[in-house]
Amino acid sequence: MTKTISEKILSNHSGTDAHAGDIVIANLDYMMGQDGTSGVAIDSFNKMGAKKVFDSSKISIVIDHSSPSPNIGVSTIHKKIREFAKQTGVNLYDIGCGVCHQLLPEQGHVVPGDLVIGADSHTCTYGAINVFSTGIGSTDLAAAWISGKLWFKVPETLKLIYTNKLPKGVFSKDLILYTIGKLGAGGATYLALEIEGEVINEMSIDARMTISNMAIECGAKAGLMRADQKTLDWVGKHSTRKPNPIEPDKDAVYKDVVEFDLKQIEPQVAKPHTVDNVSPISEVAGTPIQMGLIGTCTNGRLEDLRVAAQILKGKKVHKDCRLIVAPASKTIFLDAIKEGIIETFIDANVAVVTPGCGPCVGTHNGVPANGENVISTANRNFKGRMGNPEAFIYLGSPATVAASVLNGKITDPRKYL
Amino acid sequence: MKLKGKALKFAKQNDDINTDYIISGRYKFKIQDPVELAKHVMEDLEPDFYKRVSKGDFIVAGENFGCGSSREQAPMAIKYAGISAVLAKSFARIFYRNCFNLGLPAIEVNTDQFQDGDEIEVDLDNGIIKNLSKKIDIKIPALPKTMQTLLSDGGLVEHFKKHGGFKLD
C-alpha cells in the first residue's frame, strides 16, 4: 500500500508497515522540553523511579518561556531543570539562548526524516524541514526520556496545495492565518498536514517554518513539507547529521486535498479571542493599538526582523503605542545587530528584549493593561494569553505589526513595502 | 470503572475551550502545587468555577475541548479540582493524551443531551453513559486498547512503574 510522509516516517521508526489508524511504538530521534513543561516532566521522571535518560545526546531542555525568571516560583523551576540537566547530562539551553523551536533546527539537532517530540504544542514547526515533529505533554516526555520511545496513532493526512503566487506585502503568516480561518480551530484535529505548491517552493525556510509552526492552530498533529534543495542546503549549513528526506508516494491516500490560490488576498489579521477568527486587513484597519510584539517561535526570525526594520527605519513608534521585539535566538539577535536592524529598532523607540517567549505566553516582558489592544506576530490570541484576560490580541505578520505601531492603529503594510 | 456525578457545562462557551481557559499561563508557571493550581481551573471562562465542583463531577463540553498548548497542568488542574472525567464531542489530541497519561478519562460523546446539573453515571466497562436526570442511556464505543491500559494502570507514571517501559499490546 502507498504511504504519506507521516506513514513513512512512523513506519521507519517503528519497524512496522504503519498506516493511518494504527497505533505504533516508535523510536525517537530527538526530544525537547521547555521551562513551562519540564518541571512536571522531571517530577514524572522521578515518580517513575528512573535514574538516567536513555541517551542524553538526543535531549535538550530550553529555558525560554520565562527567561530570565520573573519571580521566585519560576526560579525554583529553573533551578530544578538546571540540576536535572547536570545530573543526567542532557543539553541545556539556558536564558538568553532563544526560543526552543528556533534552536532545535538552527543548532542542527533535527534533520529531514526524523521523528521528534517536544513538550510544547508548537513542536510541529520542524515539519517545514520534513521532520515529523509533534507536541506532547510532560509525562509523555518523561516516558520518552527513559525509553527513547513513544506511542503514536498514525494520523490521516490532509493535503494543502498553494498554487500561483502571493501578492507583494502578503507573507507566509498571512497564508497560514487565511488557511486557519478557512479550516477552523478544529478543522484538522488528529490529522497531519502535507503542505506544498508553487507558493511554498518559492519561500525561504524561515517563512516555511511560520506555516508549519501554526499547524496546531487548526488541531493538526504535524505540518509537513517536502525537503527540496533549499531545505537540504539549509540543513547542511546548520547540522552535521545526515538527512533522510521523505517523499509521499504519488498515489498516497489523503483524507482530503484542498487547493488555495491566494493571488488576490490581502494581509490577514486574526481577531480576539481565537486564531480562526480571521479577517482581511481592510475590515479591521483603523482599530486602535496600544502595544505591538514582534518575535516568538512563529515570527522572530531574521527576515521577520528585517521587514519590520525596513518599515520602521528613520521613523518612531506612534506616541500612544509601544513595540516589543524579541529575536527568536541569540544567533538571530547577533545577525540583526550586525545588519543594523537592532539600531533601527532602538532609534524608533522599540523595546528590544532577550530572546524568549515571555510576552507571547503572558509570563513577563510586556503584559498589556485592561482594555488594551495588542497586535502580535505570535501564533495565539486566546483570552488571557499575554497575561491579562481583559486585553485584546490581534495577530498579523511582522510587516503588519510594524506598520500598525507606526500609526497607533491596525494598518495595511503594503504602502510601506 | 463506574463514575458518578453531575454535569458541569459552561454558560459562555461550549466549543473550542482552550488550555489557556483551563489553566492560564499566568498561574501554570508560578504555582507548582496541583491543589493550589486547581483553584484557578477554568477561571477566565467562569470565575470561581472550582467552588461549584463536587468530587466526581464531569466537565461537559462541545467540540475540540483542550485545544491550544501542551500544558499537562490543564488536565492536572481539572483532576485535582475533583472532576472524574471530561465528556466532549471531540478533543484536541495533546490534551486527550495528557488526560489518559494522568489517569483522567476523556470520553467522546454527543453532549447535546446533557444540561448543566444533570446527574450522570459513566460505566466505562460496559460503554454506557446514563443521564439519570433525563433517564437517557447513551452507548459509547469502547476506548482504544492503549487508553484502556493506561486508565487501568492509573496513568503513564504507574504504567512505567509497573512494566518498566511501554507495554501497550
UniProtKB/TrEMBL annotation, chain A:
Binding of [4Fe-4S] cluster, residues: C297, C357, C360
Cofactor(s) essential for the protein: [4Fe-4S] cluster
Pfam families: Aconitase
Associated pathway: Amino-acid biosynthesis; L-leucine biosynthesis; L-leucine from 3-methyl-2-oxobutanoate: step 2/4
Gene3D superfamilies hit by this protein: Aconitase, domain 3
Record has Coiled coil as a keyword: no
EC number: 4.2.1.33
InterPro entries tied to this protein: Acnase/IPM_dHydase_lsu_aba_1/3, Acoase/IPM_deHydtase_lsu_aba, Aconitase_4Fe-4S_BS, Aconitase_4Fe-4S_dom, HAcnase/IPMdehydase_lsu_prok, Homoacnase/IPMdehydase_lsu, IPM_dehydratase_rel_enz, IPMI_cat
Keyword 4Fe-4S: yes
Top EC class of this enzyme: lyase
Gene Ontology annotations of biological process type: L-leucine biosynthetic process
Source superkingdom: Bacteria
UniProt keywords, alphabetically: 4Fe-4S, Amino-acid biosynthesis, Branched-chain amino acid biosynthesis, Iron, Iron-sulfur, Leucine biosynthesis, Lyase, Metal-binding
GO molecular function: 3-isopropylmalate dehydratase activity; 4 iron, 4 sulfur cluster binding; metal ion binding
NCBIfam families cross-referenced by the UniProt entry: hacA_fam, IPMI_arch, PRK00402.1
Family listed: Belongs to the aconitase/IPM isomerase family. LeuC type 2 subfamily.
Biological role: Catalyzes the isomerization between 2-isopropylmalate and 3-isopropylmalate, via the formation of 2-isopropylmaleate.
Subunit (UniProt): Heterodimer of LeuC and LeuD.
Protein name: 3-isopropylmalate dehydratase large subunit
From TrEMBL, chain B:
Record protein name field: 3-isopropylmalate dehydratase small subunit
Described purpose of this protein according to its UniProt entry: Catalyzes the isomerization between 2-isopropylmalate and 3-isopropylmalate, via the formation of 2-isopropylmaleate.
HAMAP family: LeuD_type2
Protein family: Belongs to the LeuD family. LeuD type 2 subfamily.
Single GO term (MF): 3-isopropylmalate dehydratase activity
Lineage: Bacteria, Bacillati, Saganbacteria
Aconitase A/isopropylmalate dehydratase small subunit swivel domain location: 53-109
Gene: leuD
Enzyme Commission code(s) on record: 4.2.1.33
One Pfam family cited in the UniProt record for this chain: Aconitase_C
Pathway: Amino-acid biosynthesis; L-leucine biosynthesis; L-leucine from 3-methyl-2-oxobutanoate: step 2/4
Subunit structure, as described in the record: Heterodimer of LeuC and LeuD.
Enzymatic class: lyase
Keyword Repeat tagged: no
Stretch forming the signal peptide: none
A biological-process GO annotation: L-leucine biosynthetic process
Keywords linked to the UniProt accession: Amino-acid biosynthesis, Branched-chain amino acid biosynthesis, Leucine biosynthesis, Lyase
Catalytic activity of the protein: (2R,3S)-3-isopropylmalate = (2S)-2-isopropylmalate
SUPFAM superfamilies: LeuD/IlvD-like
